Amino acid sequence: MARRSGGNALENTYKEDEIRVLEGKNAPSKNSNLVTGAFGDSESIGTGRALPFAKELAKASSVIPALISMGSIYSFSAQTGEESAGLSYRASYGIVSLINNIFTLGLSRFNIEGRARSYEFFIRKAAHFSEYFILALCVMLPLYVYKVKGRKKGLIAVIFCAIYACLDEFHQSFTAGRSPQFRDVIIDSLGAMAAVGICYAIRKIRE
Length: 207
Fold this sequence. Notes:
mainly alpha
């Protein structure tokens, strides 16, 4: 009987709303408001819950580029000395060949190989600089997203990159044919500082 009476109450409420609409009264009845409050507006509730979650998820995803950059650096450090040297030589050879073709220097293959070996050291150090330049940019992204104020963003990015550079060199001490070098930590830190400096310079110009 209780369930039947409850059903009649709802039917009466809906009929009352229909009469009010026909009479040109847009406002729902008092009972209708009670029904809406009891069962809730599913559309508004779903939207209210989904939007904050999606926003927080988007903010959290800003750390993904930094994780990818860190993983890339780790993978290079995991290469043996022979593998790393081979990669550096191929990169150096490709650069010298490209310059030879662009400026039509007419270098023979023997000359290209010799110059590639001469430039290999600088290519390796430029790679260190570039890796941490990119990492610093990636680290600053979530700091911007989470609205870290002032120069703290740049300071945090440089310190983070310097610490990771130290850990990276420590990792190389366990890799065959590789050894940690403090000089590389300095180069890595300079790359991070350059990235931060450029970001601040661009900001000043835009202001």
